[in-house]
TrEMBL record:
This protein's record includes keyword Signal: yes
Residue ranges of every copy of the Plastocyanin-like domain listed in the record: 35-149, 161-311, 420-553
Organism: Rhodamnia argentea
Similarity remark: Belongs to the multicopper oxidase family.
Chemical reaction(s) catalysed: 4 hydroquinone + O2 = 4 benzosemiquinone + 2 H2O
Cofactors demanded by this protein: Cu cation
One GO location term (cellular component): apoplast
Signal sequence, start to end: 1-26
UniProt subcellular location: Secreted, Extracellular space, Apoplast
Pfam families linked: Cu-oxidase (PF00394), Cu-oxidase_2 (PF07731), Cu-oxidase_3 (PF07732)
One BP annotation, GO: lignin catabolic process
Keywords from the UniProt entry: Apoplast, Copper, Glycoprotein, Lignin degradation, Metal-binding, Oxidoreductase, Repeat, Secreted, Signal
Gene designation: LOC115743691
Protein name, per record: Laccase
Function: Lignin degradation and detoxification of lignin-derived products.
Length: 571
């Protein structure tokens, strides 16, 4: 009896200690983000670039799963701004998600707002970026989530870790570029360079001496956390003579597989291991466009950084001091993209909802508006005197301008949006065939699709061949989803269901819907709030390739959105 009492006392102490340890483990990280113009010189020219804390790219945030981030954003720039934490679930904290006029009104010049949220059950590489106009061209940084204190990676701990942020640089003010495109209705100018960690690299003018160097030692393993932060371009990425072992994407682990090249759409991240198993020398890492839209102009340049063996003799016998240049796939190599993305499997068996409450089918694609009568021809410089547009289910999404959707929803403000976004395309047609001109003009609207808390959603994303078919990286805020299958042509609900992976489908927050093809995803609507879903090519958001899921509260506090923070920017 006495022994038993002693044991239970000891057990009690142990329990208390472990609770205390867990509590002590979860940290709160405070950061100040001052959005401000800073002089940045690239491609021989200095620009007044909008940055965070004068840094380009912005600061890397590192946390452990379970930690809380408190980021006070102060706007000292002359533009409105918001910050989005791309891929963070924001469970019950939708007010901290960031997309302007969806979850908050923007932070005006001189204003500030504190984003406060906890990372719950996520590990890997994510990132943060501005979510207002095209500010994210330069306002972005990595957000790295390590396993909980004491927990480990599902692979041998690499000797080093380096975030690799792929970006896009305009030799102009990106805000002017999008304003001009919005005025003319034409496609915006393409970028002048791609960048790796903010630097274009050796192949561009005035860039050599600032080329990014990534060190490696013979025999060691290095984790590269690759992030596509480019505004409008899907990118291939490779390293000369080295192979990648892909271990994760969008902060979800994958069954490891090897490849020599990866492709990321804007918004996507991919964690790869490389080993220092080659001759000690210098090797280029390089990125260039994957351009699936035929005939559309794109930036056809190549950005490089250098993987440098620390033991590399300088210049070694027989080894040239010029880094080895890798071969990159052709810009339109869709076969390589398909082979790569079809290798994705979740690391573990997962629980995919097998019953579906909401079966949705959304078309995603471009369109053309004929020139409105009151418009001067200079405002209709799209193909044949039209204006470019884009849509989901034939609705071209228009952001509200006086209220955010989430605030309007919570305060019951009428007239900001309607809840009649259709579950299916208003007209069925041969989406990937020769689409009749009469179907090229969508309807501008601010429509949301309501979801009951906990509903199990299946969504078919169907690309269209309107104007130009292309691969669209579709991102959903506030959610990760399982990718059951992808394919080309029109989705066939009778035969294509046989292709569904219900065992170990990959989980992501951004899916590349194949050019002239489809993707099927599933998720459970367990996070109340207003969640933007959009193409992560920013030019397509500008044109309206977006919609919003409005997820209702469930039962009780733990299934309800928290009240809005007191400093939420006024509209
Ligand atoms: Cu990277 Cu709307 O997000």
């Amino acid at each position: 009896m006495e022994a038993l009492r002693k044991t239970s006392f000891l057990l009690g102490v142990l329990l208390l200690l472990s609770v205390a340890a867990t509590l002590a483990d979860a940290k709160v990280h405070f950061h100040d983000f001052v959005v401000q113009a800073a002089k940045v010189k690239r491609l021989c020219k200095t620009h007044n670039t909008i940055t965070v804390n004068g840094q380009y790219p912005g600061p890397t945030l590192e946390v452990n799963d379970g930690d809380t981030l408190v980021v006070n954003v102060v706007n000292r720039a002359r533009y409105n701004v918001t910050i989005h934490w791309h891929g963070i679930r924001q469970l019950r904290t939708g007010w901290a998600d960031g997309p302007e006029f969806v979850t908050q009104c923007p932070i005006g010049p001189g204003g500030s707002y504190t984003y406060r949220f906890t990372i719950q059950g996520q590990e890997g590489t994510l990132w943060w970026h501005a979510h207002s106009s095209w500010l994210r061209a330069t306002v972005y940084g990595a957000l790295i989530i390590h396993p909980k204190e004491g927990a480990s990676y599902p692979f041998a701990k690499p000797k080093r870790e380096t975030p690799i942020l792929l970006g896009e640089w305009w030799d102009a003010n990106p805000i002017d570029v999008v304003r001009e495109a919005t005025r003319t209705g034409a496609a915006p100018n393409v970028s002048d360079a791609y960048t790796i960690n903010g630097q274009p690299g050796d192949l561009y003018n005035c860039s050599s001496k600032d080329t990014v160097i990534v060190p490696i030692d013979s025999g060691e393993t290095h984790l590269l956390r690759v992030i596509n932060a480019a505004l409008n371009q899907e990118l291939f990425f490779t390293v000369a003579n080295h192979r990648f072992t892909v271990v994760g994407a969008d902060a979800s682990y994958l069954k490891p597989f090897t490849t020599s090249v990866i492709m990321l759409g804007p918004g996507q991240t991919t964690d790869v291991l490389i080993s220092g198993d080659q001759l000690p020398a210098r090797y280029y890492m390089a990125a260039r466009a994957y351009q699936s839209a035929q005939g559309a102009p794109f930036d056809n340049t190549t950005t490089t950084a250098i993987l440098e063996y620390k033991s590399a003799p300088c210049p070694a016998k027989g080894i040239s001091s010029n880094p080895v240049m890798p071969a990159l796939p052709a810009f339109n190599d869709t076969a390589t993209v398909t082979a790569f993305t079809r290798s994705f499997r979740s690391l573990k068996k997962v629980e995919v909802p097998t019953v579906v409450d909401e079966s949705l089918f959304f078309t995603v694609g471009l369109g053309l508006f004929s020139c409105p009568k009151n418009f001067h021809p200079s405002r209709c410089q799209g193909p044949n005197g039209t204006r470019f547009t884009a849509s989901m289910n034939n609705f071209s999404f228009v952001l509200p301008s006086t209220f955010s959707i989430l605030q309007a929803h919570k305060q019951g403000v009428p007239g900001v949006f309607t809840t009649d976004f259709p579950a299916n395309p208003p007209v069925q047609f041969d989406y990937t065939g020769n689409v009749s001109r009469s179907l090229w003009q969508p309807v501008p609207a601010t429509k949301v699709y309501k979801l009951k808390f906990g509903s199990r959603v299946q969504l078919v994303l169907q690309g269209t061949n309107i104007q130009t078919a292309e691969n669209h990286p579709i991102h959903i805020h506030g959610y990760d989803f399982y990718i059951l299958a992808t394919g080309f042509g029109n989705f066939n609900s009778r035969t294509d269901t046989a292709k569904f992976n219900l065992i170990d489908p990959p989980m992501r927050n951004t899916i590349g819907v194949p050019v002239n093809g489809w993707a099927v995803i599933r998720f459970v609507a367990d996070n109340p709030g207003a969640w933007l879903m959009h193409c992560h090519l920013d030019v397509h958001i500008t044109w309206g390739l977006a919609m919003v899921f409005l997820v209702e509260n469930g039962v009780g506090e733990l299934q309800s959105l928290q009240p809005p923070p007191a400093d939420l920017p006024p509209c």
